[in-house]
Amino acid sequence: REGPAAGVRWLHAADLNHSYWRGTYETEFHNWLARQLRPRDVFFDIGAHVGYSSLVASRAVGPFGKVLSVKALPHNAARTREHIFNNGMAHARCICVAVGESDGLAEFTVPYDDTTGTLMSSQGRFDHVRGDGADVRRADRILVSVATIDSLVERTSWMPTLVKLDVEGAEVVALEGARRLLTSHPRPVLFIEFHG
Protein backbone atom coordinates (compact mmCIF):
# COMPACT_ATOMS: atom_id res chain seq x y z
CA ARG A 1 0.00 0.00 0.00
CA GLU A 2 2.85 2.39 0.77
CA GLY A 3 6.65 2.59 0.82
CA PRO A 4 9.08 1.11 -1.69
CA ALA A 5 6.95 -2.05 -2.06
CA ALA A 6 3.71 -0.18 -2.82
CA GLY A 7 1.71 -2.02 -5.44
CA VAL A 8 3.43 -5.39 -5.20
CA ARG A 9 1.24 -8.48 -4.94
CA TRP A 10 1.62 -10.03 -1.53
CA LEU A 11 0.19 -13.21 0.00
CA HIS A 12 -2.24 -12.55 2.81
CA ALA A 13 -1.53 -15.40 5.21
CA ALA A 14 -2.41 -15.45 8.88
CA ASP A 15 1.15 -16.31 9.90
CA LEU A 16 2.77 -13.46 7.94
CA ASN A 17 3.51 -10.07 9.42
CA HIS A 18 0.77 -7.70 8.21
CA SER A 19 3.29 -4.86 7.91
CA TYR A 20 4.55 -6.60 4.74
CA TRP A 21 1.40 -5.96 2.71
CA ARG A 22 0.89 -2.58 4.36
CA GLY A 23 4.38 -1.55 3.24
CA THR A 24 5.45 -0.60 6.75
CA TYR A 25 7.90 -3.45 7.47
CA GLU A 26 11.33 -2.10 8.46
CA THR A 27 10.62 1.08 6.50
CA GLU A 28 13.91 2.82 7.26
CA PHE A 29 15.94 -0.10 5.90
CA HIS A 30 13.74 -0.68 2.86
CA ASN A 31 13.71 3.02 1.92
CA TRP A 32 17.53 2.95 2.16
CA LEU A 33 17.66 -0.23 0.07
CA ALA A 34 15.48 1.27 -2.66
CA ARG A 35 17.73 4.36 -2.79
CA GLN A 36 20.98 2.39 -2.66
CA LEU A 37 20.27 0.00 -5.54
CA ARG A 38 20.46 1.16 -9.15
CA PRO A 39 19.13 -0.32 -12.39
CA ARG A 40 21.24 -3.34 -13.45
CA ASP A 41 22.62 -3.90 -9.93
CA VAL A 42 22.79 -7.40 -8.41
CA PHE A 43 21.27 -7.94 -4.96
CA PHE A 44 21.75 -11.02 -2.75
CA ASP A 45 19.03 -11.38 -0.10
CA ILE A 46 20.55 -13.94 2.25
CA GLY A 47 18.06 -14.94 4.87
CA ALA A 48 15.22 -13.70 2.69
CA HIS A 49 12.42 -14.93 4.98
CA VAL A 50 9.47 -14.66 2.55
CA GLY A 51 11.00 -12.22 0.08
CA TYR A 52 9.93 -8.71 1.11
CA SER A 53 13.43 -7.23 0.67
CA SER A 54 13.79 -9.17 -2.57
CA LEU A 55 10.63 -7.56 -3.96
CA VAL A 56 11.82 -4.07 -3.01
CA ALA A 57 15.21 -4.81 -4.58
CA SER A 58 13.65 -6.30 -7.73
CA ARG A 59 11.87 -3.05 -8.40
CA ALA A 60 15.01 -1.01 -7.76
CA VAL A 61 17.36 -3.02 -9.99
CA GLY A 62 14.80 -3.29 -12.78
CA PRO A 63 14.43 -6.02 -15.39
CA PHE A 64 18.12 -5.92 -16.35
CA GLY A 65 19.35 -6.31 -12.75
CA LYS A 66 19.43 -9.54 -10.77
CA VAL A 67 18.07 -10.58 -7.37
CA LEU A 68 19.02 -13.78 -5.57
CA SER A 69 16.83 -14.73 -2.60
CA VAL A 70 18.33 -17.35 -0.31
CA LYS A 71 16.30 -19.13 2.37
CA ALA A 72 16.87 -22.46 4.11
CA LEU A 73 13.29 -23.25 5.16
CA PRO A 74 11.47 -24.89 2.24
CA HIS A 75 8.04 -23.37 2.99
CA ASN A 76 9.52 -19.83 3.17
CA ALA A 77 11.45 -20.40 -0.06
CA ALA A 78 8.18 -21.52 -1.69
CA ARG A 79 6.47 -18.33 -0.52
CA THR A 80 9.34 -16.23 -1.84
CA ARG A 81 9.10 -17.98 -5.22
CA GLU A 82 5.35 -17.32 -5.26
CA HIS A 83 5.91 -13.63 -4.51
CA ILE A 84 8.50 -13.42 -7.30
CA PHE A 85 6.19 -15.18 -9.75
CA ASN A 86 3.06 -13.20 -8.79
CA ASN A 87 4.95 -9.96 -9.40
CA GLY A 88 6.42 -11.00 -12.77
CA MET A 89 10.00 -10.56 -11.59
CA ALA A 90 11.76 -12.86 -14.04
CA HIS A 91 15.11 -11.32 -13.09
CA ALA A 92 14.80 -12.72 -9.53
CA ARG A 93 15.59 -16.24 -8.39
CA CYS A 94 15.12 -18.05 -5.06
CA ILE A 95 17.40 -20.83 -3.86
CA CYS A 96 16.40 -23.02 -0.90
CA VAL A 97 19.70 -23.40 0.94
CA ALA A 98 21.31 -22.27 4.19
CA VAL A 99 24.46 -20.16 3.96
CA GLY A 100 27.52 -21.23 5.89
CA GLU A 101 31.28 -21.55 5.98
CA SER A 102 31.39 -24.59 3.66
CA ASP A 103 29.14 -26.42 1.20
CA GLY A 104 27.38 -29.55 2.44
CA LEU A 105 24.59 -30.46 4.81
CA ALA A 106 23.82 -29.20 8.31
CA GLU A 107 21.23 -29.29 11.03
CA PHE A 108 19.08 -26.20 11.01
CA THR A 109 17.37 -25.16 14.24
CA VAL A 110 13.74 -24.14 13.72
CA PRO A 111 11.99 -22.25 16.54
CA TYR A 112 8.38 -22.79 17.57
CA ASP A 113 6.98 -20.25 15.08
CA ASP A 114 8.50 -22.21 12.16
CA THR A 115 9.18 -19.05 10.09
CA THR A 116 12.83 -18.41 10.91
CA GLY A 117 15.76 -20.55 11.92
CA THR A 118 19.51 -20.70 12.15
CA LEU A 119 22.51 -22.91 11.60
CA MET A 120 23.71 -21.93 15.06
CA SER A 121 22.93 -24.50 17.74
CA SER A 122 21.85 -23.52 21.21
CA GLN A 123 25.51 -23.90 22.21
CA GLY A 124 26.47 -21.27 19.60
CA ARG A 125 28.39 -23.56 17.29
CA PHE A 126 27.93 -24.60 13.66
CA ASP A 127 26.56 -28.15 13.43
CA HIS A 128 27.84 -30.11 10.41
CA VAL A 129 25.84 -33.20 9.57
CA ARG A 130 26.39 -35.73 6.82
CA GLY A 131 23.45 -37.48 5.18
CA ASP A 132 21.48 -37.99 1.98
CA GLY A 133 20.06 -34.45 1.87
CA ALA A 134 16.42 -35.23 2.65
CA ASP A 135 14.51 -32.90 4.99
CA VAL A 136 14.53 -34.89 8.20
CA ARG A 137 12.55 -33.41 11.10
CA ARG A 138 14.04 -34.17 14.48
CA ALA A 139 12.29 -32.16 17.16
CA ASP A 140 13.18 -28.54 16.35
CA ARG A 141 15.78 -29.30 13.68
CA ILE A 142 15.79 -30.15 9.99
CA LEU A 143 18.61 -31.25 7.73
CA VAL A 144 19.33 -28.62 5.04
CA SER A 145 21.73 -28.10 2.18
CA VAL A 146 24.37 -25.47 2.88
CA ALA A 147 26.26 -23.31 0.38
CA THR A 148 28.88 -20.65 0.87
CA ILE A 149 28.25 -17.15 -0.43
CA ASP A 150 31.27 -17.68 -2.70
CA SER A 151 29.70 -20.81 -4.18
CA LEU A 152 26.42 -18.92 -4.76
CA VAL A 153 28.36 -16.29 -6.72
CA GLU A 154 30.03 -19.07 -8.71
CA ARG A 155 26.78 -21.01 -9.23
CA THR A 156 24.85 -17.97 -10.53
CA SER A 157 27.77 -16.14 -12.20
CA TRP A 158 26.32 -13.01 -10.56
CA MET A 159 28.63 -10.61 -8.72
CA PRO A 160 26.50 -8.84 -6.10
CA THR A 161 26.58 -5.08 -5.76
CA LEU A 162 24.80 -5.29 -2.41
CA VAL A 163 24.37 -8.20 0.01
CA LYS A 164 21.79 -8.23 2.80
CA LEU A 165 22.76 -10.83 5.38
CA ASP A 166 20.18 -11.72 8.04
CA VAL A 167 20.73 -15.30 9.15
CA GLU A 168 19.56 -15.19 12.76
CA GLY A 169 22.90 -15.37 14.55
CA ALA A 170 25.02 -17.23 11.97
CA GLU A 171 26.30 -14.07 10.24
CA VAL A 172 29.98 -14.62 11.13
CA VAL A 173 29.75 -18.24 9.96
CA ALA A 174 28.21 -17.06 6.68
CA LEU A 175 30.96 -14.47 6.17
CA GLU A 176 33.58 -17.22 6.58
CA GLY A 177 32.18 -18.62 3.33
CA ALA A 178 32.51 -15.28 1.51
CA ARG A 179 36.29 -14.82 1.53
CA ARG A 180 36.63 -14.50 -2.26
CA LEU A 181 33.71 -12.08 -2.48
CA LEU A 182 35.07 -9.96 0.36
CA THR A 183 38.43 -9.59 -1.40
CA SER A 184 36.96 -8.98 -4.86
CA HIS A 185 37.10 -5.62 -6.62
CA PRO A 186 34.83 -3.83 -6.52
CA ARG A 187 33.61 -5.10 -3.17
CA PRO A 188 29.86 -5.24 -2.62
CA VAL A 189 28.06 -3.12 -0.07
CA LEU A 190 27.17 -5.34 2.91
CA PHE A 191 24.15 -4.83 5.13
CA ILE A 192 24.44 -7.24 8.05
CA GLU A 193 21.87 -7.71 10.76
CA PHE A 194 23.58 -9.08 13.85
CA HIS A 195 21.70 -11.12 16.41
CA GLY A 196 22.75 -11.46 20.05
In brief, what are we looking at here?
The chain has 196 residues and is of the alpha/beta class. Helix content is 28%, strand content 20%.
Written account of the structure:
The strands form 2 sheets. The protein has a 5-stranded parallel beta sheet, with helices on one face. It is of the alpha/beta class and about 200 residues long. The protein has helices spanning about 20, 25-35, 50-60, 75-85, 150-155, 170-175, 180, and strands at about 40-45, 65-70, 90-95, 100, 105-110, 140-145, 160-165, 190. Strand 2 (about 65-70), helix 4 and strand 3 form a beta-alpha-beta unit. Mean pLDDT is about 85; it is low at about 120-140. The chain has 7 helices and 8 strands; from the N terminus they run H-H-E-H-E-H-E-E-E-E-H-E-H-H-E.
